[in-house]
Design goal:
The chain is built from six helices and four strands. The protein is α+β, with helices and mostly antiparallel strands. Helix 1 runs antiparallel to helix 4 and helix 2 runs antiparallel to helix 3.
Length: 161
């Protein structure tokens, strides 16, 4: 499986898990609104539908135990904002070329990277020692298509022969 396919599938899994947790939290918090006093644990358990994620259950029970259940609505709103911003975070990409790239070339490379990786923040720089070609770094992946690296590979092959 290609890394880009794995990232797309992982993103779908993340969205599904965060969506389910957020829905369950919102439903439970709406049922618990105004809950105070004794037997909070029993009230929290009663508010949770069958099949609630254990993390959601434990989280709400922890809030109840610490006496923070009255702040659950604010926490859920903050969690939704946090999950939304985490999902929208772009990968960092760095394109290093031997010469300055034109605006058209930069736009084409950016579009190709976004098509392949999704949200990508692309930065461009110049390193004349590359002689020609590009080095592209996206997240933890590196594509070195520079003339310098190709010449080094030829040199290694010649020395190994």
């Amino acid at each position: 499986m290609a890394t880009t396919d794995a990232r797309a599938i992982a993103g779908t899994l993340y969205d599904a898990l965060m969506g389910a947790a957020l829905t369950q939290l919102r439903d439970a918090v709406s049922k618990l609104s105004g809950t105070t006093g004794d037997e909070l644990t029993a009230r929290v358990e009663a508010a949770l539908p069958t099949g609630t994620l254990p993390q959601v259950r434990n989280f709400l029970l922890g809030l109840a135990k610490e006496g923070l259940l009255d702040q659950a609505d604010e926490v859920v709103t903050a969690f939704a904002a946090y999950a939304s911003s985490a999902a929208a975070q772009a990968l960092d990409a760095r394109v290093i070329s031997a010469v300055d790239l034109s605006a058209t070339q930069q736009a084409t490379i950016s579009a190709d990277l976004q098509k392949r990786y999704g949200a990508v923040a692309v930065g461009f720089s110049v390193d004349p020692s590359l002689i020609g070609g590009l080095i592209i770094r996206v997240g933890d992946q590196v594509l070195d298509n520079s003339l310098r690296s190709r010449l080094s590979a030829v040199q290694r092959n010649m020395l190994a022969s």
